[in-house]
Amino acid sequence: MSSFVHLHVHSYYSLLDGTMSPEELVHQAKKLKFSHLALTDHNALYGAIEFYQIARRYKIHPIIGAEVTLRDESHLLLLVKNRSGYQHLCQILSIGHLRGGHLKFDLDLKDIIKHKEGLFILSGGQQGKIWQLARQRKIKEAQTYCRQMKAAFEGNFYIELHHHQSNDFLVNVRLRDLAVQHGIPLVASNNVHSLAPEDATVRRVLHAIDQNTLVDKIDHSGHHTQYLKPAAEMQKL
Length: 237
Description:
Layout: H1 22-31, E1 36-42, H2 48-57, E2 61-69, E3 75-80, H3 83-100, H4 109-114, E4 119-122, H5 129-135, H6 139-153, E5 157-161, H7 168-182, E6 186-188, H8 200-211, H9 231-234
Parallel strand pairs: 1-2, 4-5, 5-6
Antiparallel strand pairs: 2-3, 3-4
Helix pairs in contact: 1-2, 5-6, 5-7, 6-7
């Protein structure tokens, strides 16, 4: 079994963004000999029970979570530690949907802090605030953010690294330096949305449907490297 764990993974319950079912996802994870696997769909737990049951059947340890969108459009990744964490994640998502109303999601960082018990908080990868600050070389602001998040989540905050193209390397170096400076653990993930590189075409079509436009007019639909990579490929990063 692999020691690497995919912690940032989307199924087709990340509506019009993910490309595979929970069963396809788990089946591929088993084929790649993963012992653990997370499911972290956008602002929802629609596939959580299905994923949990299938993963247990395949003897893979399921990790339940969600990628949430905050009011400033930045993202955080929430992972469940235990029963209390699952209950708090359900509360957090309910707050976002009830406050936002139909087809909207309205969540504040304070809502997560209030219900943080039993949760790991990951920085959200390239959609996270810390990534954006590091990419823009706003180091002082990034340092302030690190201090705030570490204090708020008391050792349960992690900085997430993604590497999809060459210029991501410099951002990851800045994030590494911030992590060392502030004593924050690092996590490598791949923000998985598909099973294989060729599925990027399907994701592009989904984005076109979501935006009610032609496929040719979609200028960005993620990167073809955002698939369920084998552990050996991730460990090269």
